[in-house]
Structure formats: C-alpha cells, structure tokens
Amino acid sequence: MINNTSIEEDYSESEPSNIAVACESVSREYSRGQGGFRQSETPTVTALDSISLQVTRGEFVGIAGPSGSGKSTLLHLLAALDTPTAGQVRISGTDTQALSARQRARLRARQVGIVFQRFYLLPSLSAQANVAVPLIEHGVGKRTRHERAETLLDRLGLGDRIDHKPGTLSGGEQQRVAIARALITDPDVLIADEPTGELDTATGDRVLDIFETVATDRAVILASHDHAALDRADRIIALRDGRRERND
Amino acid sequence: MTDKTDTDFDPDIHSASRSKRILRLSTFAITRILNRLRTPGARRITLTLVGVMIAIALMTTVSGVALGLATQSAVQGDNVDYWIVPETGDLNTIAVSTGQTRLGDTHRLTSRLTRNDRIQYATPVLSQVVPVQTQTSTTREYILLVGVVPPNGSNPTIASVPTEELTPGDPYFDANRSTDSWTGELIATQAAATVLNASTGETIMPAGTDQTFRITDVADSDLRTGVGAAPVALVHLSELQAITGAADGDTASQILVSSNSQRVRTTIEGIYPQTNVVTRTGFAGQTVSTSSLPVAMGIAAFVVALIVGVLFTATTMGLEITHDRQFIAILSAVGYTERSVGFVVALQVVTVCFIGGTVGALLGIGGIYATNIILAQTLSLPAPGIIDFRLIPYGIMTAVLIGILALPYPVWLARRTTITEALRL
Q1: Chain B contacts in chain A segment 46-65 (CB below 8 A)
Q2: What CA–CA distance (Å, rounded) separates A23 from B35?
Q3: Is the dihedral of CA A228, A231, A235, A236 positive or negative?
Q4: CB contact (8 A) between residue B330 and residue A133
Q5: CA distance B308 to chain A (A)
Q6: Pick from B50, B86, B34, B67: which is nearest to B368 by CA?
Q7: Nearest to residue B38, comparing CAs of A161, A119, A123?
Q8: Which residue of chain A has the CA closest to B9?
Q9: What is the residue extent of each domain of chain A?
Q10: What are phi and psi for residue A101, nearest 5 degrees?
Q11: How far is CA A146 from CA A131, A149, A184, B305, B410, in A?
Q12: Which of A101, A243, B304, B398 is deepest in the core (most CB within 10 A)?
C-alpha cells in the first residue's frame, strides 16, 4: 500500500528558485497510425490529461499507477525526452516546449540524469567508461572523465569493479553503474523508471538507499509498481488513465 | 555519499571548446567501433569491412594491371620526354607489339628531328619478338629484339639496355643496306643471355634469315616487368627491319625524343601527320599510353569499387544502425545532440571503411603479384601488373570516400531513432 502520509502537499508556497521541475496542465496525445492522406481522421490517444505538479530540489517523489496510467509518458516529459501537446514543463525554470531538439539535448546533458529499469549500459565499455560517457559530449578529457567516474563508482561501492564490463557485473552492480552514469554530470533532476524492477529485494533496497541519499540536494522522481520503492519517497503522485488521482 | 555538495563537480566541463568536443567524440567513436569489432556478434560491421575490403582489393589489382599496361605501352629510355606513336595505335605492350600500326620513313624523319637544337636525341624504335638460336644450341628461344638508331654523342639507355656498345647511327641503313655494312651488333640483357645460354662474342641466328648477330656485350641490367626480367636485346633498327620484313617503308613502332624544351612538342606534332605525341606526365611519370584502354580500366575499376562499396556500406551499416539503435538512444538520453550522435555514427562508418580499405589495398597489392604469377605460369604472358605502393594510399582514400558517400543513409536512420521507442523507460 502507498503510505498515505506521503501524499503531496500544496507546493504553491514553494520558493520558485528551488523548484527543479514543474508541470502545468500538461497533456500528451499520440496519433495512432500514419493517417495517410486523411490526417483529419487519424485517431488520437490521450496518454496524459492536464497534469500539474512541482518537485523541489531535495525532494524524493514517487510516481505510482497501474500499467497504461501514463507514468512513462510523464517521465518522458519530465526528462525532456518529449514535449507536451498542451501545457508546460519547466526544468530548472526552462520551458522544454520552447526549446529545439538540440537545446533539449543540452538541457538533458546538464540538468537531467536518467536511470532505466534495464540499465542500458554499453556492453563493450568498462563500468568506468560507461559512467564517463555523458562527459564526452561536454568535451571533458579522458583523465578527468575517468577520475570522476572512479570517484563516483567508489562512492557507490564499486571501486573494485571499475574495469569490469557490464556482462560480468550483477544486476545490482549494473544498476549502480547506471546511477553513477546518471549522476556524473551532477544534474538537478534524477529520473528513474522501475529502478528495482529487475533486482532482488536486498539489492533493490541498496539501490533505493542511494536514491534517498542523492535526493538531498536534487529532485529525484521515481516511477514504480513496487510499494517498497514508493514507500521511500517523500510523497507520491498517483496516476490513473492519464490523470492524477484525486487523493494521491 | 553522492549528493550535489560532495561530488566536486567542475562547472568548467560545460565550456570545453568545440575542437576538444570533436576530438573526444572522435576518440569515443573510433574506440567503440574497434571494441565492437573485437566482440562477437558484430556481423554487420564485419560484413561492411569485408565488402569494402573486397571492393578495394579488386580495384587495386585492376589499377595495378592498368598501370602496368599503360607503362609498358612504350619502350622507355633515359630522359625520354616524348613518344611519337601512331594515332591508331592500340594496346601494345612490349611483348605483343607485332601487327600494330607503324610509323614509316622513320630514319629520314628522325634525322630531321635530330637537327633541331632543342632535341638532345631522337631514335625510332622497332620492337619484335623473334625466335633465335645460338650456334651451339639446338632449340629456338624467343627474345624481344629492340631496333634503335644509337645517337651520336650520347649513350642513352633504351628498354633498360645501354646503347654505348652499339655503333652510333645505323651503318647498314646509311650504306643502302649493303651486306658489307651489316654490323650484327647485339646487346643482350642478363635475362636474354640466360635464356640463350650465351655470352659475349656468341653468334645469334634469327629464324628464317641468313643474317646473324654477334653478342657485343651483355648488359648488367634487365627490363623488369613484374615477376621477372624479360629477355631483351638491342640491335640496329635497319638490321631488325631486314630480318622482320620491316625494311620496306622503313617502319618502326614509335620514335623516342629527348628534349628539355616544352616548346619542342609543337615541332614534333607537326612533323608527322596522324600521330600522337605522348609526354612524360601524369601519374608517377608513367602515364605513357598509346591507348585509352588502361586508363579506361583504371577508371572503371574505381567507379565500380565506389558504386558497389557505397551501396554495400550504406546497406550493411544501415542495418547495423537499425540494430544498434539502443546505443544511439542511450547517447541521446544522456544528452548527446543529434549532431553529436550523427558525428559518432558517421565516424564509425568511415572508420570501418578505412580499416576495410587498408586491408583491401594490401590484399590488392598481393592480387597484382598473384595475377602476374598466374599469367606468367599459365599463359606464359609477361607480367602486366605493376606493384606500385602508391596504390595503397589510393585504395585507402577511395575507401574513405566510399564511407563518406555512404554516410547519409546510416546518419538519417540514426536521426530517426526515437529514444522513447528504443528504450523502455
């Protein structure tokens, strides 16, 4: 069960400068099929309908909801991987809708870290090189990249695994490498989708400990079906059929 | 543990120069593709590499043969700057020069050329494969006799044979082909002496004539044609004409002209109607062709390699990008711009082509060598291919060009990759 004490409070009084990510009446519709020559008859599906929320730095927010409730779509928007068809998403004060694809990529590079359920590490690279991948886009030199990656891996308890390829690491270790990769650019927002979905309970707990720790000075948004994961959140946003549940 | 305050993040990393970013991205792209090649399951990349390798290997081999045919189409000499050849001249390597269109009245016209102060020397050249035997041998051997008019005052090397041991001029021709003036002088190359098992002073008897030659000297040099030395001997032009029936009309295959003056070309062109004047210019100073066939071969090899290589690379690397879209989506998700992702993909394609081109060019050089050996051993033909190591950079550059021309398709596919579709978030 979702802990009712963690229901979202009214954030209208939050300091605007402390808001890491905010949505205002955000909707997302998708066209079904190509539509051919008769675009006007293309059916559309509403994945998200008028969602508003704010997450401040230092906050750990869980997103709950059954499959098809719009969790993934919301995460796409909060991570600037997609833009809404209506409403506004702001990351560190920047409206993602107003940005070009290139500017959104830059915004992701600087402000957003993403952790995937299936880790998505590059199998031909070592753990250290995987963690350092985002820094290449910033033009950081190899030595600095590796030093930073090594420091981060060491802090996540993988100091003795830096040269290992993902294939030789356990699921928990791979997820910790993925978290290190998401944190390497020191983002304001950390987005995680079912980060414990492929891990056993004990390993999942260790990963959740990390999320709790890193949420001290950045916003952490975690989507999950797992109550143990959601219980760690400061508050929970519950979705159903693309809308926020009234009592979430 | 890993909160923002204790990560010591250096804000300057965001302001790295564009050139540094490009350098880091290049290193990343090349390292990644090399790593992929070393890991199992990189079939499409390996296939691309092998495809480019085969295209470049074939192109290099054909180019080597074309270069060889172009180079062998004229008898070369020291400091020869111009070749006068018949306009209708066809492919005529040294060994198969019989039956071609010839120039006539060559002695008179060569004398006229020689009178020009800007011309150091000029000599007609007639080359003919002739069956000969020595007095002591019982079998006939075929050697290439090259008839020239050795110039007065200079001793050029023609067809790799020095002319100094031949009496200057052409005494037999000057004496109206009087038997008394027959010099019978013959300078053999090492290969000719070996084939005939003869040495200086030995008498050489061409088949079908009573006239004989005497080996005046055996040169230290050989005319190299790839896998080995050709048996060549130098004689006076009129004497070769006499034994091959070329005396009527005073014919020769070509005329070599040595001159340092650019302006002399007009004079040469005006002296002979319906001839071509070929200069020592172009690729490595070896583009001395009386025929457009070798050039056409070289161009055709290039075009075919380019088209096949581009289509093959675009297709296979396109498949690879489609298969590898998770990699592209990861890069995009962690903040790589479309341009950066396109650059990484482009560099990977060019790197694969570069590796394929390098290996292909080396194999192509081996192919030239193999072609020469096979033709020599199976058909007893002189080696047509020239092993010129400048073909290696030529092959590599062509492979890189293949990669560049094949880029648009894989890069377009990479740009079409949607992060949210490629990664289950």
Answers
A1: none
A2: 42
A3: positive
A4: yes
A5: 30
A6: B67
A7: A123
A8: A186
A9: 19-31+46-244
A10: -60, -40
A11: 9, 5, 11, 42, 30
A12: B398
- Which residues on chain B place their C-beta less than 8 Å from a C-beta of chain A? 1-5, 7-10, 13-14, 16-18, 20-21, 23-25, 27-28, 32, 35-36, 39, 326-327, 329-340, 419-420, 423-425
Spatial CA neighbour of B52 closest among B376, B264, B352: B352
* Cα separation, B204 vs B175, whole angstroms: 23
Q: Does A25 touch chain B (CB under 8 A)?
A: no
**Nearest CB to B20 within list A123, A124, A139:** A139
Render the burial of B230-266: b for 16+ CB within 10 Å, e for the rest. bbbbbbbbbbbbbbbebbeebbbbbbbbbbeeeebee
- The residues near B297 (Cβ < 8 Å, ≥ 6 apart) are B62, B63, B65, B66, B69
Nearest Cα to Cα of residue B239 among B296, B303, B166, B311: B166
ipTM of the complex: 0.87
Helices then strands, each counted (H, E), chain B: 13, 13
Q: Report whether B221 contacts B190 (CB < 8 A).
A: yes
Beta strands A235-240 and A243-244, pairing class? antiparallel
Task: Provide the b/e sequence for B168-201 (b: ≥16 CB within 10 Å).
Answer: ebbbbbeeeeeeebbbbbbbbbbbbbebbebeee
Instruction: Reply yes or no on whether the pLDDT at A73 is more than 70.
Output: yes
pLDDT tens digits, B36-79: 888 777 888 899 999 999 999 999 999 988 887 776 544 454 45
* Residue A1 distance to chain B (closest CA, Å): 23
Q: Please determine, looking at this structure, whether the domain spanning A19-31+46-244 carries the CATH number 3.40.50.300.
A: yes
Instruction: List all residues 6 or more positions away from A216 whose beta carbon is below 8 Å from its beta carbon.
Output: A58, B3, B4, B5
Determine the residue among A60, A138, A221 to mutate to test chain B binding: the one whose Cβ has the most chain B Cβ atoms within 10 Å. Answer: A138
Q: For residue B254, which amino acid is it? A: Q
Chain A hits for B327, Cβ within 8 Å: 122
The residue ranges of every structural domain in chain B are: 19-68+295-422, 75-286
The type of residue at B322 is: T
Neighbouring residues of B276: CB distance < 8 A, sequence distance ≥ 6: B84, B85, B86, B87, B89, B290
Interface with chain A: mutation pick from B5, B6, B13, highest number of A CBs within 10 Å? B13
- In chain A, residues with a C-beta closer than 8 Å to the C-beta of B420 are 72, 76, 81-82
Is the pTM higher than 0.80? The answer reads no
What is the dihedral sign for C-alpha A51, A57, A63, A68?
positive
Query: pLDDT tens digits, residue range A174-200?
Result: 999 999 999 999 899 999 998 888 788
Tokens encoding A188: 């304001």
> How far from B117 is each of B84, B259, B263, CA to CA, in Å?
18, 9, 12
